[in-house]
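Let's do one together. I've listed all components of the complex below, 620 residues spread over two lines.
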Amino acid sequence: MKDMLNTLLIEHMHETAAIVLFCIGFTTLLLNRNLIKKIIGFSMMDNAIYLFLASYGYIDGKLSPIYVSGNTDPSLYINPLPAGLVLTGIVVSVSVTAIMLALTVRLYRRYHTINIDEISEIVRREGK
Amino acid sequence: MLWQNIPILLVLLPLGLSSLTAVLKPKASRALMLGVNTVCLCLSAIMLCEVIINGEAFTVKMGEVGAPFGNELFVSHTEAFVAVGFDLIMLLSLTASGRKVKQDVAPNRTSLFYTVCSLMLAALNAITLTNDIFSGYVFLEISTIAAAALIFVSNARGTLMASMRYMIMNLLGSGMFLFGLAILYSLTGELLFPSMKDKLALVEAEGKYSGALFMGLTLITVGLSMKSALFPFHTWLPNAYSLSTPASSSILSSLVSKAYIFLYIKIISKSVGLDVFMQSGTANVLLAYSALAIVIGSIDAIQQHNVRRMISYSSVAQIGYIFLAISFGTDRAMGAAIFQIFAHSAAKAMLFPAVDRLVEVSGGNENFRDLRGSGYRAPLAGIAFTVGAFSIVGIPLLGGFSAKVYIASAASGIRQYVALLALAVSTVLNVIYFMRTFVTIYRKSDRQSNELSFRFLPGFSVAITAFILLNLCLGLGAGRVMKVISDGISLW
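Okay, and this is what the predicted structure of the assembly comes out as:
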């Protein structure tokens, strides 16, 4: 038990944190009834994945992949690709967040609430 | 060779011109979008011919940078065929329902509708051709955003909420897909499908990280099945398909979810490997859920009183067929799955505009009792509905029949009797709900034809005729189509 906790919380701290954050974000996006909180959950979920990728991309004791000191030996540097992936991912999630917020604004203007259950109820009543 | 640059053009042309469509007047924007779509269709047809003539696949390295840093597009017979199919169905859907777009979409948003279509075309082509799992994710998100916009662009009641639900389910799916991708990347350090497959085979042989591999594969499977509305993640589908404008419904049901499934097929065949996929047990779970999807989707469709919702629920069952074939885990079954993707796309993309026309000549009501006799008031739409419904039910000479035969033969090849049972039960259920509609639209009624029924609609007529021919071609030329698909799969 102690060994397991040691592995989880100290050796693999970033991965554990990423998975916990992912689960919190995922359940918030799935279950919370408030649209703004859903969007916060979505951001948390995506950022957890970026934390996971970034923590795997970093190796202790190596330099960031920026060529300044005249050292051309590639084994001194970390792989720049995970950072590139994270950067691309952030751009994607920002645009998705923007469109979700825009949709929320339009829903609020039409139904005057951001509770997804209440909106569904109003839509159902309109249909009858 | 010059034609080997076509894959890049197929992605960049619609992506680049989409910003131009946004600033043009609605008519010019529509013309530009249809023009780009036609050019893409011609280019992909040339690419398909060249690949078939040369008999070998080719890879385009973006910026001439190789693995592990570079990004690639890969074209074999299968990818070229899928690109032709997607571009053709997109073009026909937009032509068939172009008139309705004018009615359903506010004039100041019409140009934006075509911008979104153009982005969608770029994303579909990129998902089809990419050989890199991360580019797959990026274009997956572009297509999700475009699809949400296709739903809420229409003025109809409830589309905003349908779009929100669509986004929520799809974002959950994308999140899981991205996490799965991150796990596979951390195991292998590769993003390109072939190099990832080599490394994953080593990981599997060593056995130390098989838990992580299983986790990654499961996350990708669940993520993509959420995005493509496999039962039980299909709750967003009926509203999204039945409330949006018919062009959007056609594109969403026959292209967007199918592109996700095609990406999944590519991932499990080209990067995970079918052996690993079968050993992981994911296939068994997929088999169970797809069998349930087939039966429950059909039962839900029977219970509907609204014809567009019925067609939407029938999509749930049809997506079940595709995943059922995937769960068999053989190359032959993957071919059957891709054939079913096309058989269903060709039929569904025709059903939405046809039903919309039948509803239009019946006073705008989507309930069955109002549709009585509409097959006489709009003859072409009636024929199109009949052909589409017969294809989905599986009447010989049409695409859906051949697809079912291929799936059944793949199932009996590996003695998968549960799947055969599900196929048999669902065929009976399909007959029930489509025959009911068929009988309804050809039952005599005292409703008089209104002036709408006599109006000649050139775009609709041409596109629907082309759709009918496409369904017949898929049925009559099934052997040839299947040969092209399986030739491509053997090159993966």
